[in-house]
Here is the input.
Amino acid sequence: MPNSLPPRSSMRKQSSALARRSPGAVQVLVQRQRYFSLPSLTFAGRWLRLGGITMGLFGAGSFVSLCLWISAVFILSPYPPRWLAQALPYLAKNWSDHPIQSWESIEAELQLQGRLAGDLTNLANLSQDPQLDNLRLLPVLGQRSACTRNCQAIVELRLYEIARQEDQELSLQLLDKLAIQGPPEEQVVDPVWQANARMGGSTHPLPLLDVKSLHKQGLPGVWLTLTGRWQHQGSPILYGQVLHVDLQTRRINSLLNWSSPPGRLPIWQNLDNQGLPELIISQSIGIEPRFSLYTIANTTAAVAIRLKEISLNKLSFPQTTQTTQYHNALFLAQQGLWSDAQEQLTQLKTQLAQQWSQELEQQLQLVTLHARISQSQAERIWSRPGQKLLALLLDGQWETALDMMGTSQSFFETSVLPLLRQDSSRLWQRLTASLQVNPTEKAAQIWGALLLLAKEDKEAAFKWLTENQGSVAQQEFKALVDKVQPDPPEATATETEITAVEEQPSIPSTTQAETSSIQPANTRPVVAGLFGTARPLTSLNPTEWRRPSGTSELTLSTGQQWYEITLEAGSINEQWQRLEVPDASSSEAIAAFWRSLGLRANAALHLTGSLPGQSQTVQVKAINLEAGTAKLLASGAATQTPESWIATHPNQWVTPPQIRAHSLAQVYQEQPQLGDRWLTTLSEHLGLDPTLAASLLQQEKAGAEGAIMLRWVDFTGDQQMDALLSVKPQAGADEAITLSNQETVHLVLSSDGDLLYSDLWNGGTMMGWLTAEAGTPALVANRSGRYDLLIWSPQTQRFQ
Here is the structure.
């Protein structure tokens, strides 16, 4: 049979032959036989081998496909893809998926899209980095819908590189472009909203209008910001968006939105003198310091740069006995007690030594920045004791504030009580926080009781002290209140007091039933100054007006006409404020209001028109109170001008020409540091180039008529003269800047260089200011024929 085994004798012969072979040959033969006699692979092994073969084939196919795709790209497009140029900027220089374009073709392309090209900025002017020599930044402007002003906003930023430059023809190649959208309104007004809960914003994005440099030598790349202004009341809020141009990838990155109620650009400052500087954004309102602090993170080429905010959130703290002190320090800082928080964190840094981390140091620098401002406000010399007292309380200096208050009854009634009522929220927040950390602080307990006394009554104050275990403070509080607010004596008005009241003039009605004199007690404070707007009357209804007793009928002399004066504000207790108009149905209240105005029969008021030299004196004849509005009827010289006039007390109206003017160049020469601060503010606000400002000063030194004139006026009442700058249109002529439609722009700057007022904020012009026998002046601005009174607020440090 063909498949039967060989005979057993044949197998023995083969074995004998094999035995006669060499040992090495036998071993190799045995191994081969073992190899070929291995059992078949397992099921899992076969799948692994199949998977390996499949992966190999897939990889080979992917490689071939990639090669084919790259070949097709190179064939179809003369320019490799932009992502490759950005990933390999030096190897792939001049590569882009956009063709080289002339400046004319770029403008034509934008015009077809309904857009405009802004000013092409040479980034090499911002830094000495040679990589910037051929880079240009172009803002693209788009038309905003449904707007009346600032309708051209930045909608896109483009980064170009100069490909060729022959004669005056410039050829550019697009490297990157970034769509721009402004921050939402609610984010911009958030710092103000936290101080004034009545103010809020929508989610509508606000426009970004200008490009400004934020670059500082030593920083990686180029730093820029887009800016805009949001106007509500008083000074506008400056807002913007921080951008970074990465020179490694040649891309534009948007990093964060910001807003600044005091109107300051972000600045770089190295607070700890280590590493890169921090970005500081001022969000302070009045004397209340508030700053946002950011550090630069991820400076390696492999990771995009970003800004990391330094917060007051709790960090991982070494497991020591000082953990409670660290948490208390953060709590005090969050409640606005910056000086106390700085003191505790500084002690912790000394105690922890080497365990003090970089993140903890950043928190300390943030607290120190706020504490430095808060302490400077408390140490500042204020024109009014009440302002000094508020600064001490906001800084948590309870004992010093208590010593300053003293035991004067008049100071307590006129300054302390109004201060505690007006600023009760933020003061109570600090008081309770201080007592939570240090419950036995006697001075803080007394101030807490005083605040409740101002808001409620003595009973509530004593009850609060009892509940908070302030037995020692309760005794001192009682002794203090007995001196500053003694109980009134139980007595009726004497005959002398009634007689004195009867001597005051009264305002009878025009009906026969009310012709007798009115004799109410006058409890309203006397107004030391008035502000109103007057308009000529073409007809008069005598029944609408009430006349002082003893005056004749309402008649006019030859060449005269009637003027209706609407009262808006007055100087009361050395402070300009809106007038509170009583109910018109009460004759007694009307008589008291008339006496509070300080007006007698035929009292004189001063009228000022919008044209230079346009002024006259009028005589007050009657008063009308209706719908919460107070109006005076006055007779004066007839005029053909239908426009409104400014009405004030005589000798209270001041205009810039009445103050001696100085050359800004002279002040700059005498006080160069002060001049530098002012020029920086002017350059940022008006958009003037620093070299242009320097050339203007040189012209003034040469004897030419100054484009920027200066006058010294104390507008804030802090016993420090402020600068009233009058900027003529030629100051921006070389820059093609449209300052306004008026001849001169007025600005008010503090000695620290802060911009307190600008005509550009209100869209009008400052005509002058009102003064009283004491107190701060009030600005008057003309905005399209309407006069606005801007009153300085010591609390918010703004004209509003």
Observations:
- The CA atoms of residues 95 and 132 lie 17 Å apart.
- The longest helix spans residues 43-76.
- DSSP finds 23 helices and 31 strands in the chain.
- The mean pLDDT is 76.
